[in-house]
Amino acid sequence: MIEPRVYGLDDHHYRAVGENGVAELVPTVCPLGHPLGADTVLISSSPCLCAGRPHRTWRCWACDGTANVSVWVWPPCSRHPEWTPWAV
Ligand SMILES: [Zn+2]
Ligand SMILES: [Zn+2]
Q1: Is residue 35 one of the residues assigned to a domain?
Q2: Which residues of 46-77 are buried (b: 16+ CB within 10 A; e: fewer)?
Q3: Which domain does 81 fall in, by range?
Q4: Is the residue at 17 inside a domain?
Q5: Protein residues near ligand 2, an ion, with CB under 5 A
Q6: With contact defined as beta carbons under 8 Å apart, do 59 and 34 qualify?
Q7: Which residues have CB under 8 Å from 82's CB, separation 6+?
Q8: Tell me, what's the pLDDT at 88?
Q9: Strand, helix or coil at 43?
Q10: Which of 9, 34, 38, 80 would give a disulfide with 4, using CB separation of 3.0 to 4.6 Å?
Q11: Could you tell me the distance, in angstroms and rounded to a whole number, from the CA of residue 18 to the centre of ligand 2?
Q12: How confident is the model at residue 28 (pLDDT cuts 50, 70, 90)?
């Protein structure tokens, strides 16, 4: 079984799957509490150098287009302080 931390991945955001797999965990609610699921969240990657790797982002569809900035990000991004770091 792969240990995510061997690859610099923390146990709060990744878990081992089977003998050779690693899966990302995902938030189930947006920073403002809307449920996130198959048709309610835009999962993306934001290229940036602040964390030494791209950021994973989860943007809530219910909040999108409103005045609310409701985006989870991991790792935290210094260029987008309005995005909420997803700490589980
Ligand atoms: Zn939301
Ligand atoms: Zn960044």
Answers
A1: yes
A2: eebeeeeeebbbbbbebbeeeeeebbbbbbeb
A3: 26-85
A4: no
A5: 48, 50, 77, 79
A6: no
A7: 69, 71
A8: 67
A9: strand
A10: 9
A11: 31
A12: very high
Total domain count, the chain: 1
Tokens of 35: 């449920």
Q: Is residue 12 part of a domain?
A: no
Query: What amino acid occupies position 43?
Result: I
Rounded Cα gap, residues 8 and 57, in angstroms = 19
Instruction: Over range 15-43, report the average pLDDT.
Output: 92
In this predicted structure, the answer to whether residue 38 has a pLDDT above a threshold of 80 is: yes
Strand pairing category for 84-85 and 71-74: parallel
49 falls within a domain: yes
Dist. CA 20 → ligand 1 center (Å): 34
CB-based burial of residue 9 (10 Å sphere; 0-12 exposed, 13-18 middle, 19+ buried)? middle
**What's the mean per-residue pLDDT of the chain?**
91
